[in-house]
Amino acid sequence: ITFQGEVSRLNTRPITAAALTGIMRPLLPDVNMVSAPAVLKDKGIPFTESRLDAPAAYESLLHVGVLSRGSWRRVTGTVVAGAPRIVRVKDMALEAAFRPVMLYVNNSDSPGFIGALGVILGEAQINIATFHLGRQGTGEEAVAIVGVDQVVPDEVQEYADAVVIGEG
């Protein structure tokens, strides 16, 4: 976890505890903000926290990276007008507001992706509330963060993954 800008000058322990809890909870449902740092330490999982006072496009940034299966997963967030935003995923710029239910989709930047995903969700009666895209460049790797109004069933997620990645 790296704090950049104004936030780097604050007491960041509660933010760190909340981030660790969010990362760990899918695998350890009983972890909480008090136990998360200790659980991480007990499991021997390395963790680093750093601060950058360097200027950025936003007043404050929170960078979170997780090494999973040999690859880094990175996301950067900030607060805009009092509301949290995701502003970078996998080194791709975007700005996405948080929603109670969000889909994260990896895809190639190619014509028809947005339409295909919209059709899949529409046929499943899943309403799209927000849609945010980031990409490395034309025709390269891209990500979509889609806010939806209800939980997306596993079978729809699996079908959408196959179609947008090009396997179905």
Structural account:
The protein has 168 residues and is α+β, with helices and mostly antiparallel strands. It is built from 4 helices and 9 strands; from the N terminus they run E-H-H-E-E-E-E-E-E-H-E-E-H. The chain has helices at 13-24, 36-42, 113-123, 154-165; strands at 2-5, 50-52, 60-68, 71-80, 83-89, 92-97, 101-108, 128-135, 141-148. Strand 4 (71-80) and strand 5 form a beta hairpin. Helix 3 packs antiparallel against helix 4. The model has no long low-confidence stretch (mean pLDDT 90).
Rg estimate, integer Å: 17 Å
In terms of DSSP E residues, the strand content is: 35-45%
Low-confidence stretches: none
Shape: globular
- Number of helices, where a helix is a run of at least 4 consecutive DSSP H or I residues: 4
Query: Helix- and strand-based class?
Result: alpha+beta
Strand order within the widest sheet?
2-1-3-4-5-6
Please give the alpha-carbon distance between the first and last residues.
37 Å
Helix content: 25-40%
Average pLDDT, rounded to a whole number, is 90
How would you spell out the order of helices and strands?
A: EHHEEEEEEHEEH
Number of strands: 9
Largest sheet entry: 6 strands, mixed
